[in-house]
Amino acid sequence: MKKNIAIVCGGFSGEYDVSIESAKLVHKHLDAEKYEAYLVVIEPNDWFYKTADGKKINIDMQDFSLQLNTKKVLFDAVFNVIHGTPGEDGKLQSYFDIIGIPYTSSGVDSSSLTFNKFNCNAFVSSYGINRARSMSYVKGEKIDNDEIVKTLGLPLFIKPNRSGSSVGISKVKSVDEIADAVKKAFEADDRVLIEEFVDGREIACGILQRGSEIIVLPLTEIVSKNEFFDYEAKYTKGMADEICPAPNVPEEIEQDIKTFSAFLFHQMDCKGFVRFDYIFTDSDLYFLEVNTIPGISEASILPQMALEFGLSFKEFFNIVLGNIIKN
Question: How confident is the model at residue 233 (pLDDT cuts 50, 70, 90)?
Answer without folding.
Answer: very low
